[in-house]
Write the structure tokens for this entry.
Amino acid sequence: MTVAKRFLSLGPSAFFVAAAAVLAVSAPATQALAAPEKGPTAMVAAAEPDAVDAGLKVLKAGGSAVDAAVAVQAVLGLEEPQSSGLGGGAFMTYYDAKTRKVTAYNGRETAPAAATPELFYGPDGKPMPKGQAIVGGRSAGVPGAIAMLYLAQSQHGKLAWKDLFGDAEHLAADGFHVPKRMADAAVSGAPQARQPDAVAYFTKPDGTKVQAGELMKNPAYAATLKRLAAEGPKAILEGPIAAEIVAKLREGPYPTAMTLKDLASYKPKATPAVCRPYREYTVCVPPAPSGGPAVLEGLGLLQRTDIEKHPNDVQGWYLFSQASRLMYADRDRYYGDPDFVSVPMEGLLAADYLDARAKLINPASAGPPPGPGTPKGAGVRAPDRTREPGGTTHLVIVDKDGNAVSMTTTVESIFGDGKMVAGFFLNNQLTDFSFSPKDQDGAPAANAPAGGKRPRSSMAPAIVLDKEGRFVAGAGSPGGPSIIAFNLKVLVGLMAWKLPVQEAINLPNLIAFDTIYASEPARYPPGVVAGLAAKGVALRGGGFGEGSGEQGIEMTPNGLRGGADPRREGVARGY
């Protein structure tokens, strides 16, 4: 047997070991082979560099991935208040390296107990205009992000909760440099940016608005963080800040029905993640009402195609677009809070259902918009045309022990509802509910409002594992309803097209639902846009609301490798 054949008969690991040994022996003594530089063993990817630095500081002090997530969120709430904060909600997917189990944490906001299906009906008995509803007090749900983080940190933290807010408190008290996205949002046409609290916060003493790069302070936020460090989530869900929240939401037209009891009784949830195979991988996401299961449906449909043979070409993007349309059609019909409605998740992800739906993809050209399917367990549901606005961010963290967090966090729209208490903005998350609780025939919408109910979400923080249950990657994005497509794209890039995470993030965004193909035509390789048009997929620029802000971290044989969306200000750093 020749040396080459003997090497080939070994497994992959043994092959490389043996090959390295031969090279080491045969190489001239004066020409030592340089070992490849080892990559980071811990990493943070988030939307603002200051937040990444805060997370890395916690990791270097011996903190866990969840400890670092608390510190990162505290800074993001200060420097990216248009996207997330103490007054918002979140979904987190957590990977435990020792047990190789993935847990989903649900910090989605809840409606007040007194909410009714007609929550967003106006005096005329008809659904209110969305913009009008957003800035009314009734748009806000009970905030859940901090309570969720507190629960996760109590289970997986290594440092004391009180020690996780130092960087954010320092930045708020002593000043931080205004990020460009925040400055742009402050002067945007969003109705929340024109609310009195937002105008006051972003206006300098000379009457001009804050500019990117200027030093800005938020002493009220620093004081809130000090209370939060000492008291946990009770600092905002009970006591004087809770009273401020209720009072603020009762101001003006369309006031809230929220009470102090609603705030004090909020409970985050921890459940096993929903995990499904994709080729040689397993992908784990939070269950409904998150958008995670919809991403799994999209992957399940694409697994029944040959998309892996078409990296970033016409056919690859065509298959992606058609699977997306099927995925969105089902998601918009059936998803809601499973504590209140029956969500046929098992039916939607069943092999026979995916087989049948995948056969609807015409390999040659796009047809008319697909309707929802009829999975096992599906009831009669009204169409839900809710379109969530964007005001969201994503972060991924891996600690030195291999534990990982993938977390999407939000205040819903830009600056939530535009109302501020104690240095932070309140959310307008309840406008994610269907404004019309029934269709004209009386069929109920799965996502109709109800007291204590969590609105449907597109947030879908994902963690990818290999066949042995080891961490492969964590990824996610903000983007309103486009989150599902943004995440699907990154996962396809990683798992089907075998791209490094940064290259997967850099791929064009394509959001396909109904008759719409919203995209970034200039980002495709030559000929792809024309080729898609010839197949009935006419791309239009923009049209998907908030742009992506994808963050990702992947494990490589040489250590961790991160990626951050060039469309925003995020970075991925490790050590």
About this structure: The domain at 54-266+390-441+456-574 is CATH 3.60.20.40 (Glutamine Phosphoribosylpyrophosphate, subunit 1, domain 1). The mean pLDDT is 92. The two ends are 45 Å apart (CA to CA). The first strand starts at residue 43 and ends at 46.
